[in-house]
Design a protein that fits this description.
There is one protein chain. The protein has helices at about 15-35, 55-75, 80-105, 110-130, 135-145, 160-165, 185-205, 225-230, 235-240, and strands at about 145-150, 150-155, 215-225, 245-250, 260-265. It is mainly alpha-helical and about 270 residues long. It has 2 domains: about 15-175, Isoleucyl-tRNA Synthetase, Domain 1 (Orthogonal Bundle); about 185-265. It has a 3-stranded parallel beta sheet with strand order 4-3-5. The longest helix is centred in the middle third of the chain and has 29 residues, at about 80-105. The termini are far apart.
């Protein structure tokens, strides 16, 4: 029923039930990953968004945009449209893109870069639970009260990573995600460009029968100086996600040839 448009007839569709099951499963699996990565996270260490890594800034910007658009749709009683906004953010921006891009820093040895990713993970997944709560109230409450017990995810009414840190007894009485943070056009452009680069790398690996998780050689990105400058803040995430041995950012006017596995021109 959450997919129906205001004032329109809605018919039972088993496919929508299966979609709902996939959403609940993905929320659980993503939550288990996030909570495991936050095992040594100190939520009390507040870091200004200006000091976060560029990819972490981007996902928080995207969360804020989704929350604002969903609020607009809710106020018009367009529940189905609000759900579409949420699913696009959760599946595309958060699960498919951000989690994959952040893994290199989460698994890496650089403490500051890992902390930046943890701060973004905490903020964004808590936001995900808030946005999803009107549609799937039970799994969101379960995840809100969840914590890791070794390798097992457990949920208890009086505990949980988010419930403990937020000091609020239920996800359903939390405030809606809201912030005055304004998106940075350069950060948005850089993130979209970085994601396009990763997409090209995946196509290259598929065409050459290379598993996505396998290492590859040098990757060269050729673009104008302004784009290269914006991409510098995403270079580490591109390198770790693509499993490239080296990433070079080269002006597209460069004429000499370079030994490389893949050249991507933007």
């Amino acid at each position: 029923m959450c997919t129906a448009g205001l004032g329109k007839d809605a018919y039972y569709d088993e496919g929508k039930v299966k979609d709902g099951k996939k959403l609940v499963t993905k929320l659980y699996n993503a939550g288990k990953f996030v909570i495991k990565q936050l095992g040594d996270f100190d939520e009390g260490r507040s870091t200004p968004i200006s000091e976060l890594e560029d990819m972490d800034k981007w996902i928080i910007y995207r969360l804020n945009a989704a929350a604002r658009e969903m609020q607009t749709q809710f106020e018009k009683y367009e529940i189905g449209q609000a759900l579409k906004v949420f699913e696009n953010f959760f599946w595309r921006d958060f699960a498919d893109n951000y989690l994959e891009m952040a893994k290199g820093r989460l698994y890496g040895q650089d403490r500051n870069k890992r902390l930046s990713a943890q701060l973004a993970l905490y903020t964004t997944f808590l936001g995900v639970l808030k946005l999803a709560a009107p549609f799937v109230p039970h799994i969101t409450e379960e995840m809100y009260h969840s914590s890791m017990d070794g390798e097992v995810l457990k949920s208890e009414e009086t505990s949980g990573l988010f419930a403990t840190n937020e000091g609020i007894s239920s996800i359903h009485i939390n405030d809606w995600p809201e912030t005055e943070i304004r998106p940075d056009p350069d950060i948005n452009k850089g993130a979209e460009t970085a994601l396009n680069v990763i997409s090209e790398v995946r196509k290259y690996k598929t065409a050459n029968q290379i598993r996505l998780g396998e290492p590859m050689g040098r990757v060269v990105i050729m673009a104008d100086e302004d784009t290269l400058s914006i991409l510098e803040g995403f270079a580490g995430d591109i390198t770790s996600t693509s499993r490239a041995s080296e990433l070079l950012l080269v002006n597209k006017d460069f004429q000499d040839s370079l030994p490389t596995d893949l050249v991507i021109t933007i």
